[in-house]
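Can you give me the bound-state structure? Components:
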Amino acid sequence: MADDNMLDNEDTQKDKYLTFHLAGEDYGIEIKYVIEIIGIQNITDVPDMPAFIRGVINLRGKVIPVMDVRARFDLPNREYDDRTCIIVVNIDGTEVGLVVDEVSEVADIPASSVEPPPKTGKSAGGQYIQGMGKIGKAVKILLDVHKLLFSDEMKALIAEQEEGV
Amino acid sequence: MGMDIDNDQIEIIQEFVTESQDMIEQLEPQIIELGQNSDPETMNAIFRLFHSMKGSAGFLEFDHITRVAHAAENLLDLIRNGEIELVPDHVTLLCASCDFAKDALEKVDSDYTDDSMSDAADEISAKLHDAIEVAKGGGEPAAEPVAAEAPPEPEPEPEAELEAPKEEAAPTPAPSSAPPAANGELPKLEITEEMRLSFVQEGNELLQNAEQGLLAWGENPEDTESIGDIFRQIHSFKGNCGFFGFSHMEELSHQMENILDRVKSGSKLAVENPADQLLTALDILQQGVNDISDGKDGVIETLEEQLKQLQLLVPPLLGEFLVEEGVEEKAVAAAVETQKKPVGEILVEKGQASNDQVDNALKKQQQKLNDAKKETKPAARTKTPAKRQDIRVDLGKLDQLINLIGELVIAENMLIHNPDLVGMELENFNKAGQHMSKLVRELQEMAMSIRMIPVSGLFRRMIRLVHDISVKAGKKVDLELIGEETEIDKTVIETITDPLVHLLRNSLDHGLETPDERVASGKGEKGTVRLQARHEEGEVWVTVKDDGRGLNREKILEKAISKGLIEGDGSDLTDKQIYNMIFMPGFSTAAAITDISGRGVGMDVVKRNLEKIKGKIDVSSTPGKGTRIDLRIPLTLAIIDGMLVRVGTTTCIVPTLSILEAFRPTMDQITITPEGDELARVRENFFPIIRLHEILDKEPDSKELPDGILIVLEYQGSRFCLFVDEIVGQQQTVIKGLSEFIGNVAGVSGCTILGDGGVSLILDVGSLVESAESKAQDVELF
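Here's the bound-state model for the whole set.
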């Protein structure tokens, strides 16, 4: 029974991406990582953090860090407004909030419609791309959440923090 | 098997072959592993393999496989029971047996018989037998006592049997399959730990049942059925005691049995209901059982007294008094025999006793009864609680519980400090609120205590370590353990085990001098290492202290410079800073790498593990006098009292424990040094000022010191002032870790959730002090 459910879940989550808006582009992340989407709320600053770690929020008693995806990609800052959302993702038990401009929808993008990421990688965001998803004419940049959160760069930053203690 | 192999059998054989092959494949690496460390689990697994193979092969009449498996099994059994020691040759032999089995299985697979393996089987089983003989001959003297202490239990037998493939088809026809008992020696009736345990368990149960019965009977004396039940319980208990030879307990329970027997048969007792006295005796027995479970021998020191007490319950016989009064003994006896009427009456009737005599005797009997009643005092029951009972709980569940309680504290704060209530006069609400706060606090303390275990277990493990190292290093040492009862969170204990091992190794290896050196420097021959745990400043401190040669500042400095860990000649560094360098990776001052320590790993493990639990290390050392290392561990998940302070729009929590005082400074209290450091004068002292807004990088209401508040904080003797805009209030604070994603943040020890749902950082006074100090000295260590 439980197994069936698991399979169902796996199945229903396959090829599904949560898409969001960021600086004029559409991005997507695999739905299986997403726990929930909340509106922007008070973020408590944490000193000595890289600029893209905005601080921490209280998610029903849990304190989770919040990363500004714009800042992560070195995109220009933008005031938060009432469309700004925090997508809470859970990767291997670590919960992190991702601040995005606007959440759009859950889209079905079969693997056959996903192109490998471009090799240019000029921008800071380049290395976090998992693939380019095509829905009709529209293109969604599919992000590798793992890399987004745990890239070597991030690790180095954290290590730096720890050294400082 | 011959010719008459039908399809069914072929199927069975094939199954046997594949299963056995699988098992061998799995176990081969384990056999190798066995050569490196003889883990009993591995040993058992390998034993089971050969055992099942033997069983199945026996059933299928592959005699050669059976023979070899049997021989291998014998060898393993002897090793397992500690009768012979495992040597590399054995591993080789076992591997060879596996190889043989593989070959044989292949043959079986193709020919359905292992006849062709006869020679190989002879060879390998002969080798195995030889190995056993040789090992037995050589290892006997050492192995014997071990064997006697723990008679071998052929325990895995049934289990192995079950796993044997095809066992459902027929029982293994191998009568020799039971591993031969050690040297054929019959186990003496010695009380093993296991027997003791089962005695204690059963005893507890019996006594508990008896107690319940007694209590029920005490309430309802007419209930003779329960007496029978109690009697049976005590009787079985007596039997057990007798069997184990706990004679005192046997005697006492025997006496209880007597009394109960009397009650059962309806005889009168000195008191109407002896339940109290019996319960007392029961308690004594319970105490005895507890003693036994503690490994003592269940001696009841007050046995005589207890027996007397119980004896008093038995009413003296009228006849005895009559004899005293001068009535002939025989007559009394006869009267007793015909005892249909009261003895006295009969005697009077028969003219053998006068009425007066009988009256007197009756009076005396009555008096004696009364005396007895008085003497059998209603027994102040000193209730000995049954042995503490433990249950095993998944640590995850406990964590969840503690988290929930943390949430409860926050919810309570939200409720009681609810902004909607501001300005209202709510007397009853406040009362209810206070009551709830109290309960929540108790709940929280209880939950925290669940996770705490005393450090004694950890400390005791170190005794062996210290012993071994001191022998190896040729040093004489006394290990003092202090504060073993101090309780620390279980996970913390696990985390500091390694650091403690490293610290002790270091103390013994580098810190303590050899006996000769010690005598030469005027110290006692024996060094002392003290391991101490205690609560201090809201933390648990675990201290390792030795009276050895102390740390050598010059040597450490030299090493640090040569390794490029510091710049310059380091003359501007404090002792403390230099001593702390021993915890840097790759640092070792030992001139020679010894067997025990000196490779430079280890001390950094200490630091790393301590950081994991947000602990700190303090080193202090006096050359020639010794070194002292304090591991300072915060109480985990503590809920602390905090002072909420504000800078601009940001609030922070300062642990109340470290606050000495707070005041609004005037300009003349402030001094600015030529370097630009600000100092505040508090009475006769000057303290450095740390501006919170600089740490948090926030815009304060005002940067002018007189506009804000200075909070004097103390941490381990160093004091400093923290400049904030305002103190908002005090509150219970549940410490929550900042996400692991963020890691450690300088100056912040965690965060908490405020009544309004916002997150607030908790300041780490310790690291603020450090930054104040390094600021004051303008030295950068790293």
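A couple of observations. The CA atoms of residues 217 and 223 of chain B lie 6 Å apart. Chain B has six domains: 7-184, 193-313, 318-375, 395-418+427-453, 455-634, 639-777.
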